[in-house]
Design goal:
heterotetramer; A alpha/beta (310); B mainly alpha (322); C alpha/beta (509); D mainly alpha (368); A: 310 residues; 6-stranded parallel sheet; globular; B: mainly alpha; 2 strands; binds adenosine-5'-triphosphate; binds magnesium ion
Chain lengths: 310, 322, 509, 368
């Protein structure tokens, strides 16, 4: 039976080189596999969040996937207005019978790439470049730190944020400068969670012959040989699954917390970076991964207490 | 300590370059009496054109040419509106900023399907760093070694272009006929007119100069400092350049120092970010992010006095009120 | 021989305004040809057309008998026409030299061309005795010298037809005579001079021929030798005007304003007013004569509260005012019933973008008569303005017209009306008739005398010696910031002229 | 620049119409370029913004923001000051509103909160404009630079506050808790009987905005302060001659301007979002510049320009919905073209029109 799926992206837009783009990829993938077309919308201001969701619901679209925690309030409202429409939201929890909330344990994935970073670093100094200083990004940073420290006693982690306006997510030049300054301070691996800004970080790493770490989608291919790995946040899977479940009548509402165990986050290994990842590094990461999954290692979630003990 | 200073200065140079180019660009236009808050838009348009063409042609130079062309086109649009049709110069500038933001993303997506991003440039399609002779051998000589090999050597061509444009602009402005007339028309177009010189044509030439320099600035962003265009990548630099221009009271050499200052404050903030400060200890990152702007205001209020814009600036030249 | 210039049926309108109506004009080679007319008669426009600044709608121009069209000033210059504009066309923050070479730089690079220009300038300076420091900034020069620069510009471009639009409006008698000497020299060299002025004395003094314009039309042309001031005045205004003020002698009353040891320093730190002391009594007009730029402007601005002094005391109607205090400002002074007609109406006295009625309350806008509390009572203001327009015969009689569209003469009346109608005890007046036509001059002078007869105290500053001598009851001469002496108005021009030049026979006093 | 020989109806009616037509023509070409039907596009744009209740609601909602920021720029403009700080001032205004709402919403009805919110917004905005103003007045620091700088500083301050101080616990979002009804402005349709704007967040702020328009008109053209502001803007020397203090006028005007910009937050924060969140100004401050200048710094003109931009925002969104090929970037391009043709090129058709009218009625010139 045919469905009419839809996606509403966050302010960053569908090509933000980050989770919006991942969502887009997922939707496209579903379209390719099922041959079912979908509708999408890029909002221009906060007032359009409700408008977009409502608009989709009215047009009988379902499921409607909202990307980004900023949709929380809007969705809570609209979901109540359209109880028969299936909604999903990524990165936030909306408690309603017709809403599927998908949140990720970014800290777990960040922990893994932190481990890798520390192992790959010869100076024992690694860096992190975030877009804006908001809780979500701190969550990335905190997991990364913990991973790095766990892998190398006394490893040093530099942490920088790009800016305080929307431009912070689209400023590769500034990103590059931040990376360079961290390299100057001795770092030789840098992990970014900064959308378009990160492109500049990875570029700077490549130019300086150092290593960068990608985020959200697999960015190993951007600079083969210079991107150590990427922290995968499978927003694409979340979106594709939401569409798929609806299609196959397997839709379930409720909260989905996707961590390593659920394969919601992971680290990327492919031809582009296998030369960079030695056997022992690989072993170490896989160990950490299983420990986390088994619960032997507990990765601190910044959101739990709004603070990072490391 | 000294090395750190060198490194900060090094990054200062990189950060100031686009500001400097845009700032000098604005200088030509505003000295001729045509205000221009569209620097941002021209830079963005140029960055896109440069990134796109460099990617297609696989040549940085082709990219540069395209960037300049695009920027000039926008500059001429500004001229058409504010010189030929005596439109409001501010509004025209705002319009150009909008057009640039929209068109770059639109065309980028239409041509490359990478969401307004242009394909990543291979090294040979970028302006890469030029290492001066003996830079490496001299590196270890105390002081000058660092200065020479880090600060002066090892930047890409456009950086040198930017800093050479300063004396060039000074020379054009104060040593050539064009410069004399340019300065005159910004102060009193009627005087230029009655001296038998066409105000319109003179101002058009000025905005074309603006176009050229903004073009270089854009190309620097997308083909030198980064490897490709990303939407909105100018991130407000056009406005900072404008501020620098006023800061420098519309004079070339001070313009350079103003831009270096902005670059330096930015570099400093980047460097200090996330490190505890002596005495104060840990400071919220936002403090550092605001630092350059706060210091700018302080310096402006503290040392730079009144800035008097070109007298005829901002108003179209109308002799017959019909 | 063929005339230097022939204008045939020149017609020009600015939108609604018909500035020149089918004007014919013939100017003989090697002559000084005067053009007179009221404000707004169309003189400047006609000349600007000849100079290619404006384009005529109709008609043709012949230079040396050849029909030419002059689309821009460049062409005019090429035809050997030079013009000194009424409102100078100089770049204020440029040096004299830069202004002179602008447009005639001689080459893409300034270096050599300018060096040549410097030499050429020196030559002209010597030949015509037009001395001015080539490296001085225009904004630092007194208007008199700025005008020299304008003339030099024209000569530098090798003009043999020279147009001067109201050149003497800003000159002292001495400067004016100097200018006329130069004009004669130029004429004797065979150059042709077109001189626009409001001052019939000057016409009679230097011109060979004179043309009269009224309301955009050329009403007559006369051989100067065969006409008289009165005839010209009538032709200009279209009615009889009397050219001299008659005022009855009057005993001055008590002192209303006394100034003691007033010293004013300008932004550059130079003392521009040097311990000046004088009294101003009811029912007298005290004239301050002086070459412009000798501190009169700063003096009057300080008395009006616009500038601050570094030393001195002022007493108005028994109230002491400390002019050195920062909190003294014009509104305070006005409150003491002191009115001020500034020298430069365009720069200071008016907001030309405003409607006439808005300018009618400038400086008095907080007066309750114009509205209670925070608000303005537009109707009351307009009524007041209409009253003044009526009383001062301001034309066009329309208080809803933008002030920029009144002629200088009428703009001046707007200012006078505003200041006088407040019935002040003291009136400070600067250059009341600069650039104003005879009709208006007559009116303004009469108004001032009436005021004096009504027992007001008037301080008059003017570079027009005639004006001072015919209006003032006492003449104070100012030189280099100091008062160098007092004379009765009957004193002959020569002596006053010398004092104004700093040559003071009784240095004792 | 004087208006020249055009009759009023042509100047205020025909000219703008022509300009808009040109703007949409150009936009049409862009639409054509990406292979959509321009006529249809324009239809959707106009219908989407004016053709149905909810559309009108949104159009007016956006217009409300533009009226505030437009008035802000206009007031400063009359004093010859160019305030590009609207963005930051509005951002701070948000803080003022939020503090008022957070403090009161639990205890009192909205109509008690409103005055405090208005006060908070205006005060915060004015405060943010004060420093640039005083620096301009006393030190001559160019207000354009300082206001640009203060936009960035405002962003840093607000991110800090929202992330570290005001954020509601345990939330991903850098934003305050949602206000209780006591901190929410009623929607217009709930107060105006019979009105229906669907789900558009059009709220009482529109009324506030219109009242501000009247207030600004009165201030500028009917009060002594306004007279002083205009005098200072038109001729500073004459202003001093008239006993008007430049320092006072500069500071007062800038603070009024900042206050108006700040009040934009009432519409967004108290009227629509019901919580303070980062980046909520999203460019309204900058568009305000174009709005003010296109509206010739007159409240009526500003209202019209604001509605025009409201249409572009709302109609643009509809367009993006209806036509998958038309992205939001395209909407930005169209906005740019409108600003260009209706704003910067507003005089383009004038000479032709003057000649045309003169040809038809030779007396036109005299009449004008
Ligand atoms: N640039 C202009 N634009 C529009 N109208 C103008 C312009 N210059 C002059 N006029 C109109 O043309 C008429 C003639 O102006 P003009 O300056 O020639 O008078 P004038 O004889 O020079 O007066 P004055 O003796 O005061 O200099 C004026 O009344 C004015 O209305
Ligand atoms: N640009 C203009 N637009 C409209 N009218 C103008 C313009 N320039 C001059 N005029 C008008 O031309 C007439 C004379 O102008 P002009 O400036 O020559 O007067 P003026 O007496 O010379 O002034 P002043 O003596 O102060 O120089 C006046 O009516 C004036 O309003
Ligand atoms: Mg004249
Ligand atoms: Mg679409």
């Amino acid at each position: 039976e045919d469905i009419k799926p839809a996606v509403a992206y966050d302010l960053g837009g569908k090509f933000d080189k980050s989770f919006n783009e991942a969502a887009y990829t997922g939707a496209e993938q579903f379209k390719k596999e099922s041959g079912i077309d979908y509708q999408d919308f890029e909002i221009q201001n906060d007032s359009q969040r409700e408008q977009a969701l409502r608009r989709f619901a009215r047009n009988g679209m379902s499921p409607v996937v909202a990307i980004g925690f900023s949709y929380e309030n809007a969705l809570a409202k609209v979901a109540a207005e359209f109880p028969d429409t299936k909604f999903a939201i990524v990165d936030a929890v909306v408690d309603a019978p017709n809403v599927r909330s998908v949140v990720f344990k970014e800290h777990e994935g960040s922990y893994l790439v932190g481990t890798l970073a520390a192992l790959a670093s010869s100076s024992g100094k690694v860096g992190f470049v975030g877009g804006m200083d908001i809780p979500l990004i701190r969550k990335f940073a905190c997991g990364y730190k913990q991973g790095a420290l766990a892998a190398k006693e006394g490893a040093e982690v530099f942490e920088n944020m790009t800016g305080t306006t929307g431009a912070a997510w689209n400023d590769p030049v500034k990103g590059g400068e931040l990376a360079k300054s961290q390299f100057d301070r001795g770092a030789d691996v840098i992990y970014h969670a900064a959308g378009g800004t990160g492109i500049g970080v990875l570029q700077a790493a490549a130019d300086a012959g150092k290593l960068g770490i990608g985020v959200d989608s697999n960015q190993n291919g951007l600079h083969p040989g210079s991107v150590l790995t990427s922290m995968l946040k499978r927003v694409d899977v979340a979106v594709a699954t939401a569409f798929g479940d609806a299609k196959d009548d397997k839709w379930t509402s409720g909260v989905y917390v996707l961590g390593l165990k659920e394969g919601g986050v992971d680290w990327a290994l492919d031809d582009n970076n296998k030369a960079l990842v030695t056997e022992e590094m690989k072993a170490a990461v896989e160990k950490a991964k299983s420990d986390i999954i088994s619960g032997k290692v507990e990765v601190h979630d910044y959101m739990a207490d709004q603070n990072c003990p490391f | 300590m000294f090395d750190m200073l060198i490194l900060i200065l090094d990054s200062t140079v990189r950060l100031s370059t686009p500001l400097l180019l845009a700032c000098l660009a604005g200088l030509y236009s505003e000295r001729s009496g045509v205000f221009d808050i569209g620097l941002e838009g021209k830079m963005l348009g140029a960055a896109f054109a440069a990134g796109a063409v460099a990617a297609l042609a696989g040549s940085a130079w082709a990219g540069l040419a395209a960037g300049i062309a695009a920027s000039i086109a926008l500059a001429l649009l500004h001229g058409f509106a504010s010189i030929t049709h005596r439109g409001n110069q501010i509004v025209s500038g705002v319009a150009i900023n909008f057009l640039a933001i929209g068109l770059t993303a639109l065309l980028g997506q239409a041509w490359f399907q990478q969401g307004g991003q242009t394909p990543r440039l291979p090294q040979e399609a970028r302006f890469t760093d030029i290492t001066w002779p003996f830079a490496d051998s001299l590196r270890d000589v105390p002081v000058i070694g660092g200065l020479y090999s880090e600060l002066f050597s090892g930047h890409n061509l456009l950086v040198y272009v930017a800093f050479l444009s300063v004396p060039l602009t000074w020379w054009v402005l104060y040593r050539t006929r064009f410069g004399l007339r340019l300065r005159a028309v910004g102060e009193n177009p009627a005087a230029v007119d009655t001296a038998g010189i066409s105000v319109t044509w003179l101002r058009y030439r000025a905005v074309i100069c603006t176009g050229i320099l903004c073009g270089v600035a854009g190309a620097y962003l997308s083909t030198a400092q980064s490897a490709g265009f990303i939407k909105d990548m100018t991130a407000g630099r056009g406005f900072i350049a404008l501020a620098a221009l006023i800061f420098a009271k519309w004079r070339p050499v001070p313009a350079m120092f103003a831009c270096l200052l902005f670059g330096f404050l930015d570099a400093l903030a980047i460097r200090l970010q996330g490190q505890p400060l002596p005495v104060i200890g840990q400071v919220p990152v936002q403090v550092f992010q605001a630092l350059p702007y706060i210091l700018t205001v302080v310096l402006l209020a503290g040392f730079i006095g009144r800035a008097v814009p070109p007298k005829a600036g901002g108003v179209a030249y109308v002799k017959e009120r019909t | 021989m063929t005339p230097a210039i022939e204008l045939k049926k020149i017609d020009k309108s600015f939108g609604a305004v018909h500035a020149n109506k089918a004007i014919d004009l013939t100017v003989a080679k090697g002559s000084i040809h005067g053009i007179v007319g009221e404000n707004g008669a169309g003189k400047s426009t006609l000349m600007s057309i000849l100079y290619g600044f404006y384009q005529a709608d109709e008609g043709e121009i012949l230079v040396d008998g050849k029909r030419v069209d002059i689309p821009d000033s460049k062409t005019a210059i090429a035809h050997g026409i030079g013009m000194v504009h009424q409102h100078f066309m100089l770049v204020e923050n440029f040096t004299v030299l830069e202004n002179v070479v602008l447009g005639a730089e001689g080459g893409g690079l300034l270096g050599r061309g300018v060096a040549k220009a410097r030499a050429e300038l020196k030559r002209l300076a010597d030949d015509y005795d037009l001395r001015v420091d080539p490296d001085a900034l225009i904004e630092d020069l007194p208007v008199g010298l700025q005008q020299r620069v304008e003339i030099l510009k024209a000569l530098f471009r090798g003009a043999d037809i020279l147009i001067l639009d109201e050149p003497t409006g800003v000159l002292t008698p001495a400067e004016a005579d100097h200018l006329f000497r130069i004009l004669r020299v130029l004429r004797d060299e065979g150059k042709t001079v077109l001189l626009i002025t409001h001052k019939l004395r000057e016409i009679m003094a230097v011109t060979d021929t004179v043309s009269i314009m009224r309301r955009g039309e050329m009403v007559a042309t006369r051989k100067t030798a065969e006409t008289s001031m009165t005839e010209l005045a009538e032709l200009m205004v279209g009615r009889r005007v009397l050219l001299r003020v008659d005022k009855a002698p009057r005993e001055p009353g008590r002192t209303v304003m006394s100034v003691r040891d007033l010293t004013v320093r300008d932004s550059r730190g130079v003392d521009v007013v040097k311990n000046v002391s004088f009294d101003l009594r009811e029912g007298e007009i005290v004239g301050i004569a002086g070459v412009s730029g000798n501190g009169q402007s700063q003096l009057i601005e300080t008395l009006a509260g616009i500038r601050h002094a570094v030393a001195g005391r002022i007493e108005v109607n028994g109230t002491a005012v400390d002019p050195t205090r920062r909190d003294i400002d014009p509104s305070r002074i006005r409150a003491l019933s002191v009115a001020h007609v500034p020298e430069d109406r365009h720069r200071m006295g008016l907001v030309t973008r405003f409607f006439e009625y808005e300018n009618a309350i400038l400086g008095y806008h907080r007066d309750p008569a114009y509205g209670k509390g925070a608000f303005l009572d537009i109707k009351a203001i307009r009524d007041a303005a209409r009253g003044e327009i009526e009383k001062y015969d301001i034309r066009p009689p329309n208080c809803l017209l933008k002030t920029a569209n009144f002629s200088g003469g009428n703009q001046q009346k707007i200012v006078l009306a505003r200041e006088i109608e407040r019935d002040p005890a003291v009136l400070l007046v600067g250059q009341p008739t600069r650039g104003v036509d005879i009709g208006a001059i007559e009116f303004i002078h009469r108004r001032l005398v009436e005021l004096r007869d009504a027992g007001k105290a008037i301080l008059l500053i003017s570079v027009e010696l005639d004006e001072i001598r015919s209006l003032a009851d006492r003449v104070l001469v100012m030189f280099d910031g100091a008062l160098v002496g007092e004379r009765p108005p009957e004193t002959d021009e020569g002596e006053l002229g010398l004092m104004m030049a700093g040559v003071n026979r009784e240095a004792a006093e | 620049m004087t208006r020249g020989a055009l009759p009023r109806w042509a100047d205020y009616g025909l000219m703008p119409a022509l300009n808009l037509a040109a703007a949409f023509l150009a936009s049409g070409l862009v639409v054509l370029f990406i292979g959509e039907n321009p006529v249809e596009a324009v239809k959707i744009l106009v219908w989407g913004s004016l053709g149905w209740n909810e559309g009108i609601g949104f159009t007016l909602f956006y217009a409300t923001n533009f009226i505030f920021t437009g008035l802000a720029v206009a007031v400063a403009f009359h004093a010859g000051l160019f305030n590009i700080g609207g963005e930051g001032q509005a951002y701070l205004g948000g803080l003022g509103v939020a503090l008022a709402c957070l403090a009161l919403d639990r205890y009192v009805p909205w109509w008690v909160t409103l005055p405090f919110a208005v006060l908070g917004a205006a005060a915060a905005g004015a405060a943010w404009a004060f420093v640039p103003a005083i620096l301009q007045a006393k030190r001559g620091s160019h207000v354009v630079i300082t206001t640009i700088m203060f936009n960035f500083i405002a962003a840093s301050l607000m991110v800090y506050l929202l992330v570290n101080v005001m954020a509601k616990a345990g939330s991903m979002q850098p934003e305050t808790r949602t206000f209780e009804p006591g901190g929410r402005l009623p929607f217009l349709q709930d107060v105006i009987p019979g009105a229906d704007f669907g789900t558009a967040p059009l709220n009482l702020s529109l009324i506030v905005a219109l009242m501000c328009c009247m207030a600004v008109w009165a201030l500028i053209w009917r009060t002594k302060l306004g007279y002083e502001i205009r005098t200072f803007g038109a001729n500073p020397v004459a202003a001093v001659y008239a006993g008007i203090s430049p320092v006072r006028i500069t500071v007062v005007t800038m603070m009024i301007s900042g206050g108006l910009a700040g009040m934009m937050a009432i519409n967004e924060i108290m009227g629509s979002q019901h919580r303070l969140l980062i980046e909520f100004v999203s460019g309204y401050g900058f568009v305000g510049i174009a709005v003010a200048l296109m509206g010739r710094a007159h409240p009526v003109g500003i209202i019209l320009a604001s509605i025009l931009f409201g249409m572009l925002y709302q109609g643009g969104a509809e367009l993006a919905f209806e036509k998958p090929a038309i992205t939001r970037d395209m909407i930005v391009v169209i906005q740019g073209l409108v600003i260009l043709f209706a704003g910067a090129l507003e005089h383009m058709f004038r000479p032709g029109l003057v000649r045309l009218l003169a040809a038809f009625r030779p007396t036109a010139a005299q009449a004008a």
